[in-house]
Amino acid sequence: MALPAATFDERDRYFLGVEKSATGRAWRDRLDDRGLARATTMTQRFGTPELLARVLAGRGVEVDEVGAYLDPTVKNLMPDPSVLAGMDAAAARLADAIQRNEKVAIFGDYDVDGATSSALLARFMRSCGLDPIVHIPDRIFEGYGPNADAIRSFAERGATLLVTVDCGTTSHVVLAEAATLGLQSIVLDHHLADEVLPPAVAVVNANRADDISGLGYLAACGIVFMTLVALTRELRRRGYFDARKAPDLLSMLDLVALGTVADVVPLKGLNRAFVAKGLIAMRRREQIGLTALMDASRLSGPPEAFHLGFMLGPRINAGGRIGRADLGARLMLEDDSTEAARIAVELDRLNHERRAIEVAAVEQAEAEALAALGLEEKGAVVVTAQAGWHPGVVGLVAARLKERFGRPSFAISLEPGGTGTGSGRSIPGVDLGRAVREAVHQGLLVKGGGHAMAAGITVRKDGLGPFRAFMEETLSAAVEAARRETALKIDGAVSAGAVNTELCALLAKAGPYGAGNPEPVLALPSHTLAYVDPVGENHIRARLRSGDGQFVNAICFRCVGTPLGKALIDNRGRAMHVAGYLTVDRWQGAERVQMRIVDVALA
Q1: Cβ–Cβ < 8 Å for 172, 154
Q2: Strands 522-535 and 492-493, bridge-based pairing
């Protein structure tokens, strides 16, 4: 059964009295006094179940917004695309290209957001009779963003319009060269912009300094989708669709959902609608490429946001990291099911290979970080660098370091020529992209860019020390403030007997969950660790028993050898407070609920 909500005094102190858990965190009620009042009003006014009301209130939902929040729709949440600076010029130029049957070159980034953005735009143009060039750069040989060789190739193939997606905002020199070769350019991006924009017909980027749309949280695929809405409207105004059917944009939301979740942008506002409706489109299994990828991933049951971020996204990324960069975009543009299955299987194989490379690099990076931080783990930022690391996995290594040390972290692959390419990942409340751009302006980096939570850099080997010192000085105050807020926020408490598929379905109503809309963390108070045992190389399975004899299965990922894993192993048979997320495990047609453990504390 569900347990009563904490009183204000209890919330003011610690949830379940946990001042320091196995991971070193205090547990706090996610709701403050005002949030608890909102939750109570939701229950009284709308009959919202208490736990769901607590989850909604804990995500800032106001009482009058409950209905709209539980059913986010693109129609209600999307503003007029013209609110984005440069949108009208972009739509007009794209409409010209379609009406003139021009050769269009699409240049995308090599990650999931870039692949989905490229596929979205290319699918639309194909439906209008064009055959666009789609180019995804090789991460190692071409690097991030448009390059001169690719631009010259487009010109030689007769392209007259270049559209960069998920890149291009800072590509001043390359876009200027494109103009000299006769290519006009459009930039559809979401990365931080300089005050001076590159030479282009239009730069559509909600993060340019003069954009007042308030849509800076969109991924590039979201910007591309809004551009297609504006383009459809412009073509309709010109009478282009009088004699032909307009593309079904809503059926393309599966691609938008995948890019949005995989790029870890906040799931708020319009992004929630993109993902919620995109998952519905994906469940229809009409997109041949994504269907093949779901099958290759052995995804059982309907796809959820979690699957996009942890199963489908990594496989598409594997192509860009250690294989052929264009495999993901090709898969999402493939109309032949046999060829789609072949590409999907190849991406699955590459993903397994990527995991092995990543594990070895993470071990080296953690050892280097521990040596730099010392036993007391002092320092605001982790910067690691090694020769021999595969450039395609440094972003993943940085993410693991960020999780392990709770600090913004960089992993850099050093190259024989004396430079290194790397990636950084940040923690909530610390804007990494802005700090990296400042480091570029100060000459500490060869190049770099990104957004608040992630960044990419190129640095000279002899510049590592100055770069590390700059990041420490620039980010120390923000990191200190963010780390003070590291308490684990609990949404509510339940016992094992209440954990079932109905409870999971109830909580899912406030989803989709992800960055900016955190998955509910529930506590199981004083549950006995009836069974605890490692599974695989890094995980631990457990079985939790409540005081009334009810059981719930649980799993703790990547915790072997960590303080959390040690606490689970050392306390077999003892009563513990356990915190985690509820998930539905589907296997061979059966559904079982299990908890993904994120923390424990002695009861």
Answers
A1: no
A2: parallel
